[in-house]
Amino acid sequence: MNTDKNVGRPISRLEGREKVTGAARYAAEHPLEGLLHGYVVSSPITKGKIVEIDTTEAMAIPGVVDILSHLNRPKLAWFDLQYTDMDAPPGTVFKPLYDENILYNGQPVALVVARDFETARYASTRIVLRYQQEPHQTCLEKHLDKARAPKKGLATALKPPPPPPTGDFENAFENAAVKVSATYHHGTEHHNPIELFATTTLYQGDGKLTIYDKTQGTINNQLFIANVFGLHYKDVRVLAPFVGGAFGSGLRPQYQLFLCVMAALHLKSHVRVVLDRKQMFSFSHRPPAVQQMHFATDINGKLTALGHNTLAETSNFEDYTEPTSNWSHKLYPAPNTLFEHKVVPLDVYTPMDMRAPGGSTALHAIECTMDELAYKLKIDPLELRLLNYSDVDPSAGKPYTSKALRECYLEAAAKFGWDKRIAEPRSMQRGNKLVGYGMATGIWDAFQFPSRVQIMINSEGKMVVDNATTDIGTGTLTVMTQIAADELGLEMADVEFRYGDSKKPFSMFQGGSAITSSTGVAIVVAARSMRKKLLKKAAEMEGSPFRKAKEEEVVFSSGHIHLKNDPTVKISLKDIIAFNKGAAIKTTKMGRPHMLKLRKYSLATHSASFVEVEVDRDLGTITLTRAVTAVAAGKIINPKTAKSQILGSMVWGISKALHEESIMDPQLGKYINANLGEYHIPVHADIGELEVIFADEKDSLINELGTKGVGEIGLVGMPAAISNAIYHATGKRIYKLPIHFDELI
Amino acid sequence: MNSFKFLTAPDVPAAIQLTDDQPLAAFIAGGTNLLDLWKYNLVNPTALIDISQLATLSALRELENGGFRLGAAVKNADTAYHPIIESRYPLLSKAILAGASAQIRNMASNGGNLLQRTRCYYFYDHQVPCNKRVPGSGCPAREGYNRMHAILGASEACIAVFPSDMCVALAALEARINVTGIDGERSLAFSDFHRLPGERPELDNNLKPGELITSIDLPEKGFPLNYSYLKLRDRHSYAFALVSVATALEMDGHTIKEARIALGGVAHKPWRSLEAEEFLRGKTACRENFAAAADIILEGAVGLEYNRFKIKLAKNAIIRNGMMALDPDAQLPGAQPSL
Ligand SMILES: Cc1cc2nc3c(=O)[nH]c(=O)nc-3n(C[C@H](O)[C@H](O)[C@H](O)COP(=O)(O)OP(=O)(O)OC[C@H]3O[C@@H](n4cnc5c(N)ncnc54)[C@H](O)[C@@H]3O)c2cc1C
């Protein structure tokens, strides 16, 4: 980094004003002349076949243009491979309107296209669909006997199976001094970003398509559309300038994109398709899971055996897995381990990554089991973690590039006032309320993907940075602008970061808390090249004082190159471009993780959450009064947007612990609370006082920026901390999420 | 497009006349329930008769008998924050404010609140059977996820609960409902307004087709000194009650002169037991007596797979709310941490 003027400052997001004033246009908000509107017809049955589609009445409604179903859709790519996206799990990809088979409830079976949305929606109620139903299986808990090993595939690279067994787990557990066995149950959750999934396709008529889509990956969806519809990828442009949250649901192309593009090509017209809230429950979700935990320690509390077996839902067409049983041994050393992960295929859509996939489910079970051990051992729960603390990753036998978890524990505990905890459950009270303190650890990946960035210095001496990434509301635009400005010593106002466009240089989808490290590092690498180019050009100028200057002898600041030892000697970037005959100077570079060097290390972010709850003694009502989360995630580029990420994920932790669940009716095979009135997420009154601490974690190994990503880590520890606080308050351990207050009376 | 007529009328008789001309018409007040039902394909009126502007329905005023009249088109928020309601009928104010969200209360009318439909998941999904929606089609809730459902007064055909908070207070206060229909005006005791499902779960209440609620009359007695509304739900706001309790007491020292207790979230209508209220008359206001009253109220309660907890929760809530009614100032909004 050349200067550190903007990086590290709490800068408000640059697009904030556009968002709060409504000026920002989301995927469904781009106006187009002659736009047609599609409304999706969803299957009311869970499994079986469509035997008849009668569209006579619907087609007769004025304004209805077409109704597409498997019976009359245009010819499509045939092979599964062509439907595969960068995040597809092993299996057979779901292909909308492919044939008469119904694979899950809510499956799209037709698209009504009309001149306006209301007509399309109304016409959808006038289609007569007849089905032949078959028995279905949709309830994980009822079909655990179907559990089997998941298939492996490309996606397994980012989601490795659990490590192989070590030592002699069974024997060690059997004979252990202190042990806990417990089974944890997690329900289904749907991402439910406030922005509904939507696509607006601009049919240009020259064989080219411009597509506004709600996505976390512009290039992922560009390639998908090109492959499925047999187009040249250069003729497909996917734009996502603003994304109203996604949380993983936008990592894969969703069916509205497919249907919208199909209709646009078929009707040779601009088309928009927006899902409704109920349909937001008809695709990806966090899978329900059953986790069987077997942890044991010696009499002093040192872990001797770790056993974690996960049984999780998947669909009948793809084997989705998320790393779940993998985590305990990344935190805690133990000589004997046994980890397994099995999937239970059911008649549901394939689950998908949802904020801290696997981690937030696993750490709940792991950290509650640790809590239970602490009570058995009569050791303070924090002390038990410190007793089993490890600077290396025991599961890989490698050191971490950095690990400031100890600082997280201690700083958060101090801020929270953990020392005021009275160990005995039900021993702290306030009037009718039982007061509980709970804590838990969080751990999450520190990913970096390859990313390509173009930097251009234009005739005004300003910097334009291009990359295909999205900004899903995380502050990516702001953070990238900060990084870029400092790299060339410019004001942020003189930097334009252009993104959310598949035409820009390559970025993976925005997931896994990886984009700050991925695109950020690419900016650093490209800026390095740009500084070289600018210096070289400056040296060519007549009478240039930089003729002999080496890179390390100059500094870029205030829009100029200066000599380090005499900063009054300078040339402005604007003059350099003028000397270049006004032609912009460009460079494009790839940022990549240093695989070779990093092979010797493990990479992770860590956190510690401390929570206070009040539980009403007679009524069971739970109030989260306050929570402190400390995070170790390397360098924090923007403490304000980073804090917002942690606050938001702490709220999600409250939601996961106490509120959120998609209720599956096994008889009907469908989610029955598919709306935001009954799918509960916390309201302000549920949130209490939240505090965020960033531990000072310097990481010179991990990448050029020393960053690790903050999008998910804030969620991971919260559910267990809340469960543990509830146990401390009430003496009742609830082995499931969400916890309902009535379970406490 | 789904076409319909939007009709307005200058006065009540004209509005009622419109229903005679348009048998498939619906009155619309705030629309916070009707429009949802429509969008979910549960209702399909051919015409809307806007009653929100009718002058006779829009007043809040004193009655000669010492009571107070709430116009049916008056907004829930305007009712809850009216100085007379706050001072003389604080139980009603609290109950209204425990419901929905500020935005919805600003739209929702008093008449519409009485007629809101159940929140049963299965009722709301037009693609599944429901005896309330399609009589005789069956009830998936009974064997399904019945966490929110009834423990009292349910029938084989229907276990739905009536979701209103406001009505729980109105039941306790013994309000009267004034309605006008093609055959003229009539007035119903609150306990006669809503009904139990029995064999006819499609009927929520005893309003006749085309009848318009014009107002709700509160009697003189408002229990302003000892009252409490307690609502228990899955989040701290913006969720329907799993159990709610409205308690109003008239005290003579530590002795109860008169008690009213109504439960919400447990039955197809706000639930009262005159026997329990009679039991409390002349008794000391203490946990033991409220517990005994709770046992009377909950006699015959039946729990299903997911709502069994409501029986114990209701009992604890009745006891707690009785005690809270003795010191209502301690639990005004903001002073009530866990509820
Ligand atoms: C998300 C959400 C959460 C909610 N939470 C709660 C809660 O916690 N507690 C609670 O009590 N309520 C809650 N409500 C319900 C809310 O109180 C009702 O929707 C509202 O009171 C209905 O009033 P309205 O004027 O909008 O009725 P409308 O929707 O206009 O009408 C409802 C019905 O009443 C009929 N109608 C209206 N006025 C009259 C009249 N004068 N005479 C005859 N018929 C009439 C209409 O034809 C229609 O059938 C919630 C609603 C929503 C949408």
UniProtKB/TrEMBL annotation, chain A:
Domain Aldehyde oxidase/xanthine dehydrogenase a/b hammerhead residue range list: 21-135
Pfam families assigned to the protein according to its UniProt record, in alphabetical order: Ald_Xan_dh_C, MoCoBD_1, MoCoBD_2
GO molecular function annotations of the record: iron ion binding; oxidoreductase activity
Full protein name: Xanthine dehydrogenase, molybdenum binding subunit apoprotein
Species in which this protein is naturally found: Pedobacter suwonensis
UniProtKB/TrEMBL annotation, chain B:
PROSITE patterns for the chain: FAD_PCMH
UniProt xrefs under SMART domains: CO_deh_flav_C
Residue span, FAD-binding PCMH-type domain: 1-223
Source organism superkingdom: Bacteria
Pfam family, one: CO_deh_flav_C
InterPro entries listed in its UniProt record: CO_DH_flav_C, CO_DH_flav_C_dom_sf, Diverse_Substr_Oxidored, FAD-bd_PCMH, FAD-bd_PCMH-like_sf, FAD-bd_PCMH_sub1, FAD-bd_PCMH_sub2, Mopterin_DH_FAD-bd
Keyword list, A-Z: FAD, Flavoprotein
Gene3D superfamilies referenced in this protein's UniProt entry, alphabetically: 3.30.465.10, CO dehydrogenase flavoprotein, C-terminal domain, Uridine Diphospho-n-acetylenolpyruvylglucosamine Reductase, domain 2
Gene Ontology molecular function: FAD binding; oxidoreductase activity
Protein name as annotated: Xanthine dehydrogenase YagS FAD-binding subunit
Species, as recorded: Pedobacter suwonensis
